[in-house]
Design brief:
The structure holds 2 protein chains of 2 kinds. Chain A has no helices and 11 strands. Chain A is mostly beta strands. In chain A, strand 4 (about 30-35) and strand 5 (about 45-50) form a beta hairpin. Chain A is globular, with a radius of gyration of 14 Å. In chain B, the strands form 2 sheets. In chain B, strands 2, 4, 5, 6, 9, 10 and 11 form a 7-stranded mixed β-sheet that branches. Helices cover about 0% and strands about 55% of the residues of chain B. Chain B starts with a strand and ends with a strand. By secondary structure, chain B is an all-beta fold. The chains are: A mainly beta, B mainly beta. At the A-B interface, strand 5 and strand 10 of A face strand 5 and strand 10 of B.
Chain lengths: ~110, ~110
């Protein structure tokens, strides 16, 4: 099976940088996703990592270490609209059809 | 592209009634997923289909829940009979097996069973 851990809540200040961590245990690995979910809305795709290293996309970056079963999502120059839940999801190697297991999400609150 | 389309957006029903949720995946996607989300349990995968065939329904809570995908452009999730504990937001998502398998979510159906 798969086990995904991420902090439940985080708070940060507008303009600052925040790092949301995700650790996972999985039988095989075939990619890690980060999704953003605003309150009352559906999750939307943010980033994808399958190889070790950093993927940068504007203010958001995601890092992966497969040997450590660890990823983080880095949000720079925080804006109020970044207040949302951030979900880490892992796809195992033996999973066909793109099935991913989601963590419980980290609720980020950005304060002025 | 219109994205994943779910209907209805909101459903309020009484305990014991049948509820049918509908989903139209993104054209060309060959995988479809049904999720349930609550504050207590987070985002739970109920069932997923690949090329219209159910692959894993181990997340379906009990026999009251059933899902079908009669063709590549339509799927239903049915609850019969419904119970108050089924109240949740139900999401449908689709993905393509070509590439990263990014899942695209519909807007969800907010179900309240009284």
């Amino acid at each position: 099976g798969q086990n995904i851990d991420q902090p439940t809540e985080m708070t940060a200040t507008e303009g600052a940088i925040v790092q949301i961590n995700c650790t996972y245990q999985t039988s095989g690995f075939n990619g890690l996703f980060w999704y953003q979910q605003h309150a009352g809305e559906a999750p939307t795709f943010l980033s994808y990592n399958v190889l070790d290293g950093l993927e940068e996309k504007g203010r958001f970056s995601s890092f992966l270490s497969r040997s450590k079963g660890y990823s983080y999502l880095l949000l720079k120059e925080l804006q109020m609209k970044d207040s949302a839940s951030y979900l880490c999801a892992v796809r195992a190697h033996n999973t066909n059809a793109g099935k991913s297991t989601f963590g419980d999400g980290t609720t980020l609150t950005v304060k002025p | 592209d219109a994205g994943v389309i779910q209907s209805p957006r909101h459903e309020v029903t009484e305990m014991g009634q049948e509820v049918t949720l509908r989903c139209k995946p993104i054209s060309g996607h060959n995988s479809l997923f049904w999720y349930r989300q609550t504050m207590m349990r987070g985002l739970e995968l109920l069932i997923y289909f690949n090329n219209n065939v159910p692959i894993d329904d181990s997340g379906m809570p009990e026999d009251r829940f059933s899902a079908k995908m009669p063709n590549a452009s339509f799927s239903t999730l049915k609850i019969q009979p419904s119970e108050p504990r089924d109240s949740a937001v139900y999401f449908c998502a689709s993905s393509s097996n070509r590439g990263k398998n990014i899942q695209y979510f519909g807007a969800g159906t907010r179900l309240s069973v009284l």
